[in-house]
Specification:
Strand 7 and strand 8 form a beta hairpin. This protein is of the alpha/beta class. About 35% of the residues are buried. The chain has 4 helices and 11 strands, in the order ααβαβββββββαβββ. It has one domain: NagB/RpiA/CoA transferase-like (Rossmann fold, 3-Layer(aba) Sandwich). About 25% of the residues lie in helices and about 25% in strands.
Length: about 180
């Protein structure tokens, strides 16, 4: 299957995977990364994505700095979560302003992830470009266990995750698949 077919298939599958208990476990496992830094880049969940509300709340309560995606000019920045949020052209909430801030850990949404850590996103390349521009950041995908697959197609610009968090726990991938 090509990426487009994978996206269609996994979007439909993910839509049926919601479970409050699973999301609670995912948020709990994601907090195991609390000691990995002070600034966390977390997507604001939208649609059938794994919810990040509890994770964001817990990070803020722990005194961590939280940044969220801000799309402008075809690029994505990690903008501090302060002030007013507005709907993006894609329909998700994002800060109305804010410059890109370096983050220690990135929690990324996905449609699927494979056994080597490659993630299937929505096709815009925003996270892969962000990963390339911020190679020091730990890349962590949040997903339901049913989104894990054996192998996904990937291209030269696709950068693997360091870890995947599901309701079953945390799976680490070999040192950026070197």
């Amino acid at each position: 299957m090509c990426k487009r077919e994978w996206r269609e298939r996994m979007r439909a599958l993910r839509a049926g995977m919601y479970s409050a208990a699973a999301e609670e476990k995912i948020a709990s496992y994601a907090l195991s990364f609390l000691g990995r830094g002070d600034r966390f880049f977390v997507y604001l969940s939208f649609g059938s994505e794994v919810s990040t509300k509890a994770l964001v709340r817990s990070l803020l309560c722990a005194g961590k700095r939280v940044c969220v995606p801000r799309i402008f000019g075809g690029e994505m920045a990690a903008a501090p979560l302060t002030g007013r949020l507005a709907r993006s052209a894609y329909g998700f909430l994002q800060p109305a302003g804010g410059e890109d801030a370096p983050c220690d850990v990135v929690f990324a949404p996905l449609l699927a992830a494979d056994e080597r850590g490659y993630r299937l996103g929505y096709g815009g390349g925003y996270y892969d470009r962000y990963f390339a521009a911020h190679p020091e950041a730990l890349r962590v995908g949040l997903a339901y266990a049913g989104q894990a697959v054996e192998v996904l197609p990937h291209g030269e610009g696709d950068l693997p995750l360091d870890a995947l968090v599901t309701e079953l726990g945390v799976r680490y991938f070999p040192a950026r698949n070197s």
